[in-house]
Amino acid sequence: MTETCTTSELMAVTLARGLRNEEWGACGANSQIPMAAFQLARLMHAPDLNWLSGGGGAINSAAPLVKSTADPVTLDSAEHSFRLEDIVDFELGGWRKAPTVGIFGGMQVDRHGNVNMVGIGRDYPKLRVRGPGTVGLVFAAYFTRTMIFVQRHDARIFVDEVDHVSAPGRTAARREFCDPHSDGPQLVVTPLAVLDFGDDDTLRLKSVHPGHTPDEVRERTGFDLPSSTPGEVPLTPSPTDEELTMLRERVDPGGALRRLRLD
Amino acid sequence: MNRRSKVIDVASAADLVSDGDLVAIGGIHAHAAPMPIIRELARAGRRNLRLLPNVSAGLPVEVLIAAGTVAEVYTAYVGLEDFGLAPAFRAAAESSTIVVHDVDEPFTIYGLKAASANLPFMPLPRGHEATGTRSLSPELFRTVVDPYSGNEHVAIPAMRPDVGIVHAPRCDRFGNVFFDGPIYQDDLILRASRTAIVVTDEIVPDDYAASGRHKEVTVPSFMVSAVVALPFAAHPTSSAGHYGRDERMLEDYVRSPEQWMARYVSEPQDHHQYLERVGVERLVGTLRVDHQPRADRSQA
């Protein structure tokens, strides 16, 4: 790679590499990084990946990376539009012809990959911080697999156990109630690092982004984070020249990712 | 005898909402919110409204809560997307001034779908049990046994709003609705609600729908009770094909919600005074009508 990329670009490329051809993917609101990942994957290795841009219902949109994924402009370059009824039917498992993958974030993520958007505090309904609500996180119980992304990495987000389970991670409840083909979260991509899961279904440190150290990541995570591989924790692979060119010239010529604020 | 026009003014439309009603609100995030009626309800001082907002609601719910009109919210999501948490919702929920029913996207959509199909409830495929949401609202998410397999499923009750209010970019005066952009859940809201109101930017000619455009009519006239036609009828949220969301207005709201409520909700006496306060420059700035030749557009 000849040019340096920003952290948000690295996150988009990392998620894009995690997407597979012929999958069906979806992201939620405020999701410029996942939106870029879907578009980039289609241009690179996954031309038959289909994807849904948030609640606006745009399928396979080539829209600019708008901040609001439900913006009507996403339909201008889409192949089809889903109504919310279509989205719910489909994301609960109806009509499926291919594996599905959801990319989402939340207010808290725990070591099992459970995600919380209800709020902070166990004493419900007297929450210390009332969150926005569970929205579509329930679909994590129905997607074939999911990837988690967060735009901030600290011990307030990465907690030992979430206060409320909005999206189930790799848990006993998943094994009891979900379809055996619904595998839960596979990867967590943050502004500092990439995390994956060990055989015990808890998070591990897979790689750190250039400019960051494993100690820093562990300090800013609220639970123990063993390494995925023996020896030194590797650096997150940088985008190739082709990926970065495709990302900057085709997916994000407006530079939305380069302007995105991450903490 | 002539066919009846359903066009009424915004105050008459607000009169269709009574204290204590279950009110569904269309759109999503800062898109297609029926803001003129929301502001009117806030000014009129309705009480104890129970809101069934769209699955990702923001500003309309904020305005109604800040004005003290709300008793309960069926919450899939109330927030301001890229502008963060919703301050009035957060304060009212944390101080228990309102009752928050934590639900989710399937609840709101299948609740409306059950009501519009005249079904008592909708069962969900297994999997919902792996979330904690049911334990937050056990009265809403009950279980039912599939009489064929004997398996237990989480169920969602039919949610029939007393009044449903949505925005559509275009409509005719009889109530045939053209959602030129995303439909969101607004077709379900109009079908399921006892009284269904559409706020629109543009009234199309009487013979427009029946001139080969039946596929563009997403919801037919007989599912709509009343139509309110106003310029910038969704502002500061977006209207497909007309204008985008007004991001500066949203920033201003987050910065000082109380001043914003006074300036844009309580003080203006009608929609035109509201638009005057917003100002021509800002309104024109939201327009997505393109006045540039195509070649120049990619530079923008």
Describe this structure as you would to a colleague.
- The complex is a heterodimer of chains A (263) and B (300).
- Chain A is an alpha/beta fold and 263 residues long.
- Chain A contains 7 helices and 14 strands.
- Chain A is globular.
- Chain B has 300 residues and is an alpha/beta fold.
- Chain B is 31% helix and 19% strand.
Topology summary:
The complex is a heterodimer of chains A (263) and B (300).
Chain A: H1 7-18, E1 24-27, H2 32-43, E2 50-53, E3 58-59, E4 80-81, H3 84-91, E5 100-104, E6 108-110, E7 115-116, E8 119-120, E9 129-130, E10 145-149, E11 158-159, H4 172-177, E12 185-189, E13 193-197, E14 203-208, H5 214-219, H6 241-251, H7 256-259
Parallel strand pairs in A: 1-2, 1-5, 5-10, 6-11, 10-12
Antiparallel strand pairs in A: 2-3, 3-4, 6-7, 8-9, 12-13, 13-14
Helix pairs in contact in A: 1-2, 2-6
Chain B: H1 10-15, E1 22-25, H2 35-44, E2 49-53, H3 59-66, E3 70-75, H4 87-94, E4 99-102, H5 105-116, E5 121-123, H6 133-136, E6 142-145, E7 152-157, E8 163-172, E9 177-178, H7 186-192, E10 195-204, E11 226-229, H8 247-255, H9 257-266, H10 271-278, H11 280-286, H12 294-297
Parallel strand pairs in B: 1-2, 1-8, 2-3, 3-4, 8-10, 10-11
Antiparallel strand pairs in B: 5-7, 6-7, 8-9
Helix pairs in contact in B: 2-3, 3-4, 5-7, 8-9
